Amino acid sequence: MNLDFTQIVPYIPFMLEGIWVTLRFVIIAIIIGFLLGAVIALVKISDVKVLRWLADFYTSIFRGTPLILQLMFVYYGIPQVLGYDISEFLAAILTFGLNSSAYVSEIIRAGIQAVDKGQKEAAEALGIPYRQTMVRIIMPQAMKNILPALMNEFITLTKESAIVSVINYLDLMRRATVVGADLYRNFEAYLFVGLIYYVIVMILTLLGKLLERRLSQSD
To answer: Residues 6 or more apart from 219 whose CB is under 8 A from it?
Structure first.
């Protein structure tokens, strides 16, 4: 086996820059996914049947098709249809944000429905408006239950972020490809970046476990 990691040493700063490049779009995407997912979740539990159907259809589209296909559709399809050249960064946050919102909506919906229905009925009996009931009573309890699941979604999004390399976005994966092509030594570059992904995911996993432990202690 002919391995020589010394050759990638000069490229390490270049690859390390990909950490922030990757996390930047992932963080923005998860914020978009959470906000949009929360709205979709509220629509799913509403009394308007048409809106519920539209929300379920939206979710099924993003959960039922490959993420890489969604990325290609946004990056290559939008310019063809709208005549607007979308940047790699914008394509990445749009695709991952919309995709994440479909999963987050299900997480939040399940969290809301897990809250004792008696509390909602009691609020209605006291004449508390629906909006205040959701914001002050139901959502705080639901958020406490779903935070670990949301953390898992963040971890999954971070791992899947490597897909954006196919549109030449200079994330960690793309930078490893560039270094491998320049040196004709792909194994070393991919292994180094793979270790970076592993460390990031392990840190996020640890934070998730600490969060779960803290939430369990506050019960």
So the answer is: none
**Residue-wise pLDDT tens digits, 185-209:** 899 999 999 999 999 999 998 988 8
The 10s digit of each residue's pLDDT in 60-91 is: 999 999 999 999 999 999 888 888 889 999 99
* Helix ranges, the chain (H): 12-44, 49-64, 67-72, 78-82, 88-114, 117-125, 130-132, 139-160, 172-183, 186-217
Alpha-carbon dihedral of residues 211, 212, 218, 219, nearest 10 degrees?
160
Residue 127: CA atoms inside 13 Å, Cβ hemisphere, count? 0
Sequence-ordered list of residues with C-beta below 8 angstroms from that of 87, at least 6 positions apart, any chain: none
What's the CATH number of domain 21-169, 3.10.290.10, 1.10.3720.10, 3.10.129.10, 3.30.1240.10?
A: 1.10.3720.10
Burial of 198 (0-12, 13-18, 19+ CB in 10 A): exposed
Domain-by-domain residue ranges, the chain? 21-169
